[in-house]
## 1
Amino acid sequence: MITATIAELSAALHAKRLSSVELTQGVLDRIARINPALNAFVTVDAPGALAAAKAADAALAAGTAGPLAGIPVAHKDVLMTAGLKTTCGSRMLANFTAPYDAHVVAGLKRAGTVLVGKTNMDEFAMGSSNETSYFGPVKNPWHVDYVPGGSSGGSAVAVAARLVPGTTGTDTGGSIRQPAALSGICGMKPTYGVCSRYGLVAFASSLDQAGPFARTAEDLALLLNAMAGHDARDSTSLDRPAEDYTRLLRPGAGARPLTGLRIGLPKEYAGDGIDADVSRAIDAAVAELRSLGATTVDVSLPNVNLSVPVYYVIAPAEASSNLSRFDGVRYGHRAAKYDDLLDMYKKSRAEGFGAEVRRRILIGTYVLSHGYYDAYYLKAQQVRHLIADDFHRAYQKCDVIMGPTAPTAAFRIGAKTGDPVQMYLNDIFTIAANLTGAPALSIPCGFDRNGLPIGLQIQGDYFAEAEILSVAHRFQQATDWHGRAPKEIA
Amino acid sequence: MTAQWEVVIGLETHAQLSTAAKIFSGASTAFGAAPNTQASAVDIALPGVLPVLNRGAVERAIRFGLAVGATISPRSVFARKNYFYPDLPKGYQISQYEIPVVQGGAIPIMSPARGEIAVRLTRAHLEEDAGKSLHEDYHGMTGIDLNRAGTPLLEIVSEPDIRSSDEAVAYAKALHALVQWIGICDGNMQEGSFRCDANVSVRRAGEPLGTRCEIKNLNSFRFMQQAIDYEVRRQIELIEDGGTVVQETRLYDPDRHETRPMRSKEDAQDYRYFPDPDLPPLVISPAWIDAVKASLPELPAAMKVRFETQYGLAAYDATTLTATRGLAAYYEDAVKALDGEPKLVANWVQGEVSAALNKAELDIAQAPVSAAGLAGLLKRIGDGTISGKIAKDVFDAMWAGEGDADAIITNKGLQQISDEGAIATLVDGVLAANPGTVAEFKAGKEKAFNSLVGQVMKATKGAANPAQVNAILKRKLGG
C-alpha cells in the first residue's frame, strides 16, 4: 500500500483504511532500507514527519482534510524549508538551516502533506546527471551504475524507487523533465510564474520554475494545485485566478477521448543524435495517441537548435550574479584561514563551490563583461525571442508539441563528466520551454535495450497545464508504462 | 590665472527618498536604529528571497521628474550592478542603468556670474543604498550594519553645465530645496539623506572638455565649495606645470581642505550590468503620471514668477522668498493676513524674521512669531501706532514670547505720539533747553538739526512720530 500513487493513498486515507502515521512510518522505514543504495535523500526528518502525519490524521478524522492531507512528500534541497537544512547540494550551504519556507513548500504544508525530507541534487541545480552534488551522486533505481538525470535527481529517484509518492523539483533547463524521463516517472515544469520562486534558491532567475514529480499525471495535477498561486513576494509570480489542474482529468469521453487534439511533431526533434530506441518509443507513443483520436501535424521550430547555446549564455550569466551572495560574510562556508578580504572571498568561494558551479560562474562572468555583453548576453536574449516566436507560430497549427524528453535513456555514471558539452546536450529538447516560459511535462513511454526508461515530452502553450496533463492522463489510462517499477529496489 | 581657464562641473546627487519602507523589502528606513535591527531577510540577501518594488519610491521619482520638467519613462528597467563588498549583501546593487525612470529636465538657478541659468539634467534613476562598513572600534575586524541596505535613493545626474563652485553650490541648494519642496526627501545632510559627488574638469576657453575627476564625500555645501575650489586649483596648476590630469575618483578631506586620490580609472571595476530578471520592467501609465501631477504643489520656479507679478517683488526677493516651501507659505500667509503691503512683508521676512531664525538656528516652521503675528505687528506700522524702529523692538519681544504685538505695545506704552499739540510742546521744550544747538543750526550746521530731532525722540523714548517731529521742528526753526 505504501507504494501506491497519491490518488490511491488519498482515497485510502480518507476511507480510514490507512492512517498517515502508518503510511509515514512505512515510508520512513522504506527510506532507511533503500535510500543508502540510491542516495536520493540528503536529509530525512522522521520526528517532523511523524508530527505532521499526526496532525494530518487529526484533520482527516475531523473531515476537514483535502486530497493531499497525510501524503508524504520530499522537497528538492534547493527549496527553503523552515528549520531544516537547505544545502543546494553544495559545501557552501552544507550547514545552512533555512529560517523560512519557500512558497511552494508552504503551499504543500497547508494542503496537509507530510514533509519527510530533502532530496539530493546537482550542486545549485547545475547538472544533468546528479553527479555534481557535494553529497555524492544519486543512483538510478533501474540500474545503480547509471545516472538518474539531474539536476533534481534525488526527487526523481525518491518517486521512482517508491520511497515517497510525490516530490518537488525545480526546472531551469530540464531539471525536472529530464530526470523524470531517465528515472521512469512523471515530472512537470509549469508556465514560468505559476509557482512562486520565493524560497527557491536562484540558479537562473528568468528560467527557474518549481514543479512536481509523481507517478501519474493525475498526481502531478494534485500536487500542482497546492504549489501554484500568486505570491506578492515574487514580482514574476503571475496574478491569475486559481485553477484546478485536475479539471480536465474526468473519466469517460469514450474510446477516442483525444478526438480533436492536434499533436505537433517538430521536424527538428527527429534525426541525428537521438537514440534509435528512444525514437521507436516516441513513435509508438504518438501512434497510441492517434488511436485515441488525436491527429498529428508536422511543425517546424527553425531556431530551436539554438536553444542550448542560448541557454549556456543566459543561465550562467544570471547564475554568476545570483551566486554572488555566497561570499562567506553572513552565512555559508567561510575559509578557515585568509589574509584579507579579497583572500577570504577567493578561498571561501573556491572551497565552497564545486567544479561545475565554478565553471558556470566563470562563463557567466565572461559573457556579462564589458565588451562582451552585446555579443553574448544581448544576442542570446534576442535569439530567445526568436525561439518563442517559433513556438507561437507552431501553436497556430497544433495544440501540443511532442517529442523525446532526452535524446537517450540514462547513461553510465562518469560517462560524460569529462565532457561538459556532451553533458549539456542532454537538455537539448527541454531547454526551449524554459527559454519561452511555456509549460511542459515528461511521462514514461517505454524502455531502451538496457531496460532503462524513456520519457515522452508533452509541451503546451502558455497556461496549458491542465490541457497537457489531460493528454498525459489519457495516455496513462490507455497504457501502463507509468505503472512499471524498477526491479532492483522492489 | 583663472581668466583663461574654464571650469566644467557636473553633479551627481543621491537623494534618499522619504518612504517609510525600503525600496525592495518591507523593512523600515528610519535612521539611527541599533545595527542590523532593520535588515530583513531580503536586505541581508538570504538564499531564495526576492525583491518587490515599493511603489512609493516610484511615485516620488515621478514627482521629481514632473517638478523638473523631465520625461517620465513609460517603461524603465532595473539592472544589477555586480561587485563584491561586505556591506553589499547580494553581491550586486539593484539600480537603473540603460533606461532610467526620469530622463532630461532642468533646475533653474541664480548664478552669481551669469544670472538666471538652467542646469540641465541628464537623468534621475531609482536604486537601493548599500549597508555600512564600520572599521573603527573592531580591532582589526570590520562591523557590518545593514540597516541602510535597501534604502531607496534617487540618483540625480546633471549635465556638465556648471561653471564655478558658486554655481555648483547654487545648483545643489536649489535641488536640495526642491526635493524637500515636493516632499520626496527630508534633505538631512548630516544623516546622509542628500549626498553629492562632483565631476570637475578644466579647459582653456574654446578647447574640448578636459579630463575629469570625481570628488566624493561632499556632505555639506561649504565642503562642496572648498573641495571644488581646491580641485580646480590643483588641476590648473598641474596642467600649467606641464602635467596631465588623470581620470580618477578623489575623496575630499574636510580637515585638510584638499582632495586626494581614492581610485584611478584603471582600478575601475567591470560592474557587468544586466537587467535584473527578478524585476519586470517598471511600467508607468499616463494615468499614474496624471494622478501624481494633480498632487504636486505649486513649484518654486512658478511661485517665484507669480510673486514677481502678483506682489511686485524684485527677482532677487522672489527667489529668496521661494527658497523653501515653508518660507514661501509664511510670506504669503503674512501678506494675506495683512491684506496688502507685500513689499513691507517681504522686507520683514527677509530681514528681521530670517535674521532671528539664523541666530536661533531655527527653521521657519519653528519660528516663535507666526505669519499672522507678524502681520499684526506690521498693521501697527501701517496705521501709525508705532514707528518701524519701535516695531523692531516689539518684534524682539514677540520672538521672546511676551505676547502679540498689540499687547506688547500697550503693556510697554509704545504707542507712537502723533498728537500735533503734544509734539509741538515737546519741541518747544527741547528748543528752550538747547539754545547752543539752535544757534549752531541757524549758523548753517545741518547736523545740529538731527541732534534736535534726537533730543525730541529721546524725550519720548522713541514714541514720537518722527515725520511729525521733523516737520514741526523745521517749521519752528525755519519760521
## 2
Amino acid sequence: MILTGKIVARIVAICMLGVLLQLSFFSRVELFHVSPDILPALVVCLGLLGGSMTGAVSGFGIGFFLDCLLVEALGISSLVLLGTGYLAGLFRERFEIHSSLVPALLCMGLTLLAELGYGVIQLLFGIDAPLSTLIIRDLLLKSVYAFFLGWPIYLIVRRTLRPALVEEPKLQRRRQPTVLGA
Amino acid sequence: MYRKQVRRRRAVLALLIVGSFVLLTITYGQGSNGLQRGVSTIFSPVQSVSDRALKPARDLVDWFDKTFDARGENGRLKSELVTARTQAVAGQEALQENRQLRKLLELDRGPALASSPYEPVIGRVTARSPTVWHASVSIDIGSSDGVHADDPVISGDGVVGRIASVEGGSSQVMLLTDHESAISAKVLPAGVQGVVKPEVGNPEDLILDFIDSTKRVHGGLTVVTAGWRAQGLASLFPPGLPLGEVTKASIVEQEAKEQVQVRPYADLRNLDLVQVLTGGSRG
C-alpha cells in the first residue's frame, strides 16, 4: 500500500466511522442474544490490504479511540487489536490470497483470537464474579458474525483504499483493440 | 535497505506494544482522565445523532431477532398458558402477589422513591460496550444534568446499575451484569439478605450470594435492594427497588454455596430510556 496524506486520512475516517458504528449500532443489536463485534474484522481487513504495520497501527488507534469513548482503562483494546492487525498483515505478507473466502475466514479466526485475548487480559487483571459457560457460546457466535460481516467490510475498505493498493486482486478486463479493415 | 526497513517496523511494533502497556498501567482502575473526557465530550453529540439515525436499522434487526425467539417460544408459551389458566381459577394468592409486584414496579410513585431525597433524571442510551467482559452503556445525560458518579440507575422494570463515570453531557452506566457490580439485596417477603452479583457472560442470570443458609428461599420470590445504613455509611441504592426474581433455589445450592439464582427484572440487553436517581445520600 502506498501511504499518502489522503490515504492516511481515509484510513483514520474508516477507523472512526467503524468505532462509532460499533457503539451506536452493532453493540446495540442482538441476534441469538449476542451482539456482533466488527472492530477486529475491520482491523483484519486493514491489515490484509495494508500490511502488518498498517494493521498494527490502525488496530492500536481503533482500540485507543474505543477505550476513550467508553471511558474504560486505556490500552487493553489497543493491545488486543494491534496484535490482531499485525497478524492479519503478516498473513498477507507471507501468503498469497488465492480464495475470496480467505478474508472472511481470517476475520472469523482472528476475531475469536481477539475476543480470547481480551478475555485473558481481563482474567489477568482479576474478575470479581464467577464465569458462565455461556461466554463460550458468545465468543463463538461473535466469530461467526465476523465471518459474515468480514466480507462486506473487506469490500468496502478495499474500495475506499483502492488508489493506494499496489496490486488489484482482480484484473480489469481489457477491451480488445479494434482491428481496422477486418 | 530491506534490513533497515525490517528493523524500523520492529521498532514501531515494539513502541506500540510498550505504549499499550504504559497506557494500561497508568489508567487501569483510575476512572476517566482528561483525554477520555475530552474525546467523550467531542464525540458525544456525534454518538447521539448516530444513535437516533440508526434506530430504524436497529429496530429492523431486533424484529428479526424477536421473530426467531417468538417461534421458539410459541410452544413453550402454549403449555405455560394451560398452567396459567389452572392457576388463575384458584388465583387469589397469585393476584395478591401480582398487586405487590405492580406496586414495586411503579417506582416513581412507590414508597421506595417517594420518601427518599432522590430526584430522577431521564436519559437515553447512546452506546454499549461491545465486549462480553464489560457490561456498560453510555447515556446522554451527565454532570450538567446533575448526575454524579455512583448514582443509581433504573428502568421502568427495576434496577439497571449505577453511574461509573460522568462527563459534561454523558455518563457511563455500569450494568448489574458487569463483573465489578455488587448490590446488597433482600428477598421478599422472607427478608433473607445477601449480595447480588453477576455471572460473567450470562446476562440472563444474577447470583444472590452470602445468604443465610438456615432460611429457605424458593423460586418466584421478589428480590429488592436492601438499602442498608450503619455507622455513617449507607448503600448507594435506596431500599425497596425491585432487582429481580428468584429463578433457581435448590436446597443443596443454598446449603453448600449459600446462593440462589436471580433473573433481573430490567431487560438489560434492550435498554433505551433509563432514569438516574440523582441527589441521594452518599454516606
